[in-house]
Design a protein that fits this description.
Elements: H1 2-20, E1 27-29, E2 44-45, E3 47-48, E4 54-57, E5 65-68, E6 72-75, E7 87-88, E8 98-105, E9 108-113, E10 116-121, E11 126-129, E12 139-142, H2 151-158, E13 160-163, E14 174-177, E15 185-187, E16 217-220, E17 228-232, E18 235-239, E19 247-248, E20 251-252, E21 258-259, H3 262-265, E22 269-274, E23 278-283, E24 288-292, E25 300-302, E26 314-319, E27 322-329, E28 338-345, H4 346-350, E29 362-366, E30 372-376, E31 381-390, E32 398-402, E33 408-419, E34 425-435, H5 436-439, E35 454-462, E36 475-481, E37 487-491, H6 505-509, E38 513-516, E39 534-537, H7 540-543, E40 547-550, E41 559-563, E42 566-570, E43 575-579, E44 586-588, H8 604-609, E45 654-656, E46 661-669, E47 680-688, H9 698-723, H10 726-758
Parallel strand pairs: 3-8, 20-25, 30-36, 40-47
Antiparallel strand pairs: 1-28, 2-7, 4-5, 5-6, 8-9, 9-10, 10-11, 12-13, 13-14, 14-15, 16-17, 17-18, 18-19, 20-21, 22-23, 23-24, 24-25, 26-27, 27-28, 29-31, 31-34, 32-35, 33-34, 35-36, 37-41, 38-39, 41-42, 43-46, 44-45, 46-47
Pfam families: Beta-prop_CATSPERD (PF15020), CATSPERD-E_C (PF22850), Ig-like_CATSPERD (PF23747)
Domain CATSPERD beta-propeller: 43-192
Membrane topology: Single-pass type I membrane protein
């Protein structure tokens, strides 16, 4: 009985301690004010138009942040030092220095000041005005990709949109920049008048409508998961699929009270902060709310009250499970502001018995793919694995989700994979990822266009995970469904001109050059003769020794695919060739008709004439249209033109004219279904075996030769018949007598020679 009383007393004491324990403890950051050296604000001091303070964190560079309030502060050390309010140089002539929106794009800060966009490069400490915007704008938005320097990731960070709040959607002007905001261009799409998504397949859907009763701010959570936060003072909504489905966030106050929305809970939002996994809300009622942004929806939990709110207070996440309430403090002596910080340890707060939060069921959720980026090229797949260990006696429900199911499909298998030292079961999860198009399980109207590169994140979480699993964050990776930068093409060169001794590799490396006759090339690639010969310096370091080709044999290069220095396969896809110096002394074995084209095929001339294609080597997977495609409606008007595409379904080959010499070819894979990469390279061949063309016209030699042959045939027939006639006997007799005299003379001469040879020597 005494023990029970003591335990009850101890429990009561712990509960009382928990209730009086403050949510966070304030401390003030004050630096650089030991010496009375006064810094002055240069230029026009900026201020934020809203009465509510906002705080923008750079998702990749954790120490970069922007505070928007009565004053604006930009920090590069996470507000660990006193700061002067941000100002813009007077030379920018902004007029009213009111800021309505801001965005951090990689290494630059974009501010909408007086309906125009200005750029602050904080690394170079320079200001610029954006160009290309012709109408007033009020907001700027974008995203940052933190995974790698992959072009797909860089494109996300460089993309910025600018627009004006309050306009009719059909009339508003939207601007887009792919240069971090330095240069904008008008962005328009067909469904803008009715408001919809711009890309297939979402452009056939408006998404489901949702209710709101005020002007919403939109917060894009980091990580490219498609999670959007819509909020204003009396509303908080979340979308986990880029706005297609939007739901109000429920509010939980105590173990038994659950409100369906912010307005029903009768609270007023002052500041909202989110990271990749969590959401926090500070209200004017001096309360802090918290929830997890897991795969499944969860409710905001109300933490114990404390005097946290002020008009200038703003929320930010400093790490997973770490929230900070930041308030600028003016100084009566110095122009630089100090900062009051109140850090909150979410995991510690959730241990409060009053919250009655269940203990986390999981001990471990681990995968090597977490926070990494992968690429799935056309016809490729990706295999990922993860390890999951529950607490003893607990069972877990893993859930794998992709943010863009229109592009990326998955299949997951879970199985037991042994035991830990303390007897817990280890569960292994194998995840297979492929393009949704290649799984063959989705309706074509659901999948993205297979020709267009896309992206998606994959997230592995535990469906029945408690909110107390703060440190057990979901596993996330970014998947680029696009070009694999490690791929390249190589032209097979088993027999080279150097191997056969026709060319000397030492000589090729010693500033070797050759001449292309003016009759054989066109610098404009139109098949017209040039006005002068061309001297070409051979680039041995790039081209190596030329491949050897006999001129009178139809030829097609063997194109190999390599990845990370390893051979993958011989490419069977369609590709095109073009001699880089304009040589046109070759053609193709097939015509449009013999290649069985349904439509008029493309060729280098039509590609170069297209004003949208830049440069002579612009034929690639993006502008190629197969003449065998049933959707190609170009009529077959010239069936006898050479068919200039190699590989694919035809046996087309190159046929060289009677000319020996070096050809340097550009090759490009144009099949849009082989790879998202622009697979291209240059290589050289040496054509041999062609006899030099005669300088005498062929008619001059062929006609006399034919006459001589016909005359010989006639004589062989006419002379024997003529000898049996009277004239023939007389002609024969005429020649007999001279021949006899010649024989006697020859015999006499031979006899004297014999006597001379047999006589003794005379002294």
């Amino acid at each position: 009985m005494l023990v029970s009383v003591l335990l009850a007393a101890a429990t009561l004491r712990l509960c009382l301690l928990a209730r009086v324990q403050p949510l966070c403890r304030n401390h003030t950051v004050r630096t650089g004010k030991v010496f009375h050296i006064s810094q002055q604000i240069q230029g026009d001091q900026l201020y934020f138009s809203s009465t509510r303070a906002h705080l923008i964190k750079h998702p990749c560079k954790k120490n970069i942040a922007l505070y928007l309030g009565r004053q604006i502060f930009f920090t590069r050390d996470n507000f660990k030092s006193s700061l002067l309010p941000l100002s813009i140089p007077a030379s920018m002539k902004v007029g009213t220095p009111e800021v309505t929106s801001a965005h951090i794009a990689d290494s630059v800060l974009l501010l909408v000041v007086n309906q125009k966009i200005y750029i602050y490069d904080y690394e170079a400490n320079s200001w610029n005005a954006s160009i290309g915007i012709e109408h007033p704008v009020s907001h700027v938005s974008g995203d940052n990709c933190c995974y790698s320097g992959h072009p797909f990731c860089v494109d996300i960070s460089n993309s910025v949109f600018a627009y004006l709040h309050g306009d009719q959607i059909s009339q508003t002007n939207v601007y887009f920049s792919d240069t971090q905001g330095y240069r904008f261009q008008k962005f328009a799409y067909e469904r803008q008048a009715r408001f919809g998504y711009s890309e297939h397949p979402l452009n056939s859907s408006f998404g489901l409508p949702f209710d709101y009763n005020g002007t919403l701010d939109i917060l894009i959570t980091p990580g490219q998961k498609g999670i959007l936060i819509f909020w204003f003072e009396k509303s908080l909504l979340v979308s986990r699929n880029s706005g297609q489905l939007v739901y109000p966030v429920h509010v939980k106050e105590g173990p038994n009270t659950l409100y369906s929305s912010i307005s029903e809970a009768n609270i007023t939002i002052h500041s909202v902060a989110a990271n990749q996994y969590e959401l926090a809300v500070l209200t004017q009622e001096n309360n802090l709310y918290y929830c997890s942004l897991g795969i499944l929806s969860s409710s905001l939990i109300k933490f114990a009250g404390q005097n946290l709110w002020s008009q200038e207070a703003a929320l930010m996440f400093t790490d997973v499970g770490r929230v900070e309430i930041l308030t600028p403090l003016p100084d009566s002596v110095f122009p630089a502001f100090d900062f009051q910080k109140c850090p909150v340890n979410i995991q510690a707060v959730l241990m409060d018995p009053q919250l009655q939060v269940d203990v986390c069921k999981a001990e471990l959720l681990q995968g090597e793919f977490d926070n990494k980026m992968y690429t799935i090229d056309m016809n490729s797949k990706l295999e990922l694995t993860a390890l999951m260990i529950p607490r003893p006696g607990m069972s877990l429900v893993p859930l794998v989700m992709v943010s863009n199911p229109h592009s990326l499909g998955l299949q997951a298998i879970i199985y037991e994979d042994g035991y830990t030292y303390d007897g817990n079961t280890k569960h292994r999860l194998n995840i297979s990822l492929r393009q949704q198009h290649h799984w063959g399980r989705a309706d074509p109207n659901f999948t993205s266009s297979i020709k267009r590169p896309t992206g998606s994140t994959i997230t592995l979480d535990i469906a029945n995970k408690e909110i107390s699993c703060v440190d057990l964050k979901p596993l996330t990776a970014l998947i680029s469904v696009g070009c694999d930068q490690e791929k390249k093409i190589v032209i097979q060169n088993e027999i080279s001109a150097c191997h056969k001794g026709i060319l000397d590799p030492v000589g090729l490396q010693d500033n070797y050059s050759y001449v292309i006759e003016k009759e054989a090339y066109d610098p404009n690639f139109q098949g017209q003769k040039a006005s002068e010969d061309l001297v070409v310096d051979y680039q041995y370091q790039k081209l190596g020794c030329p491949h050897l080709v006999y001129y009178n044999t139809p030829w097609k290069p063997v194109v190999e695919l390599w990845r990370e220095g390893k051979f993958q396969e011989v490419i069977k896809a369609e590709f095109v060739l073009l001699e880089v110096h304009g040589l046109f002394t070759y053609t193709y074995s097939l015509t449009a008709q013999t290649a069985l084209c349904r439509a008029q095929p493309q060729n280098w001339t039509t590609i170069m004439e297209n004003p949208g294609n830049k440069g002579p080597f612009a034929w690639n997977r993006e502008n190629y249209v197969s003449c065998h495609d049933p959707d190609n409606d170009a009529p077959l008007r010239w069936p006898n033109v050479p068919y200039q595409i190699l590989g694919g379904p035809t046996a087309n080959k190159v046929i060289f004219d009677q000319r020996n010499g070096i050809y340097v070819f550009y090759v490009s894979i144009v099949d849009p279904y082989y790879s998202y990469c622009h697979l291209e390279t240059t290589f050289s061949v040496y054509v041999y075996g062609a006899f030099p063309l005669s300088i005498i016209p062929a008619t001059v030699t062929i006609i006399p030769l034919m006459v001589a042959m016909l005359l010989s045939v006639w004589l062989a027939y006419a002379v024997p018949k003529l000898l049996h006639t009277e004239k023939g006997l007389r002609f024969k007799g005429f020649w007999i007598h001279p021949c006899r005299r010649c024989r006697k003379a020859c015999a006499c001469f031979r006899g004297r020679c014999r006597v001379h040879q047999g006589s003794p020597a005379w002294s």
